[in-house]
From TrEMBL:
The organism of origin for this protein: Berryella intestinalis
Family according to the record: Belongs to the MoaC family.
Stated name of the protein: Cyclic pyranopterin monophosphate synthase
Catalytic reaction annotation: (8S)-3',8-cyclo-7,8-dihydroguanosine 5'-triphosphate = cyclic pyranopterin phosphate + diphosphate
Function: Catalyzes the conversion of (8S)-3',8-cyclo-7,8-dihydroguanosine 5'-triphosphate to cyclic pyranopterin monophosphate (cPMP).
Domain Molybdopterin cofactor biosynthesis C (MoaC): 17-158
A single GO molecular function term of this UniProt record: cyclic pyranopterin monophosphate synthase activity
UniProt keyword Membrane present: no
HAMAP family reported for this sequence: MoaC_B (MF_01224_B)
GO process terms (BP): Mo-molybdopterin cofactor biosynthetic process
Sites where the protein binds substrate: 77-79, 121-122
Keyword presence, Lyase: yes
Active site: 136
Amino acid sequence: MSEQQLTHIDDKGDVRMVDVSEKADTQRVAVAEGFISMRRETLDLIVEGRAAKGDVLACARVAGIMAAKQTSSLIPMCHPLNITKAKVECTPVGPGARDDGRTGIHVLATTGVTGKTGIEMEALTAAGVACLTVYDMCKAVDRGMEIGEIRLLRKEGGKTGLWERDPEKS
């Protein structure tokens, strides 16, 4: 295939689930990130464990892992995968720690599988749902929180091998 094609579109332009039955099983890993920015007071509430709904970061980690396992139920053309790894890390980021000066939570999601198709959507879904969970648990005190920067950082395995985001172009 010399030119890139959308794999979920057939020759007639109809959507389809890609047939992966002939592909070899390989070990695949994907890493995605997200960021939820918030007021400093909201971050302090989270870090100090004073949120009314409980441990925000623990809940976000669990929600992200659960979301990774449910990706094929949410994204129509995703294959159900027997995930072998799902890890979500939530790191508080205070003022001055980022070049843009924003305060919030950085989410890093890592997913893995041994299978015939990639695991990128599971990592992206985990990062997004972890950020959404932080929003849900803290919206009563900060409706102005913003979720962004949900993006793939790295994928490895399969026919295309290793892909990493160029930090200079991010």
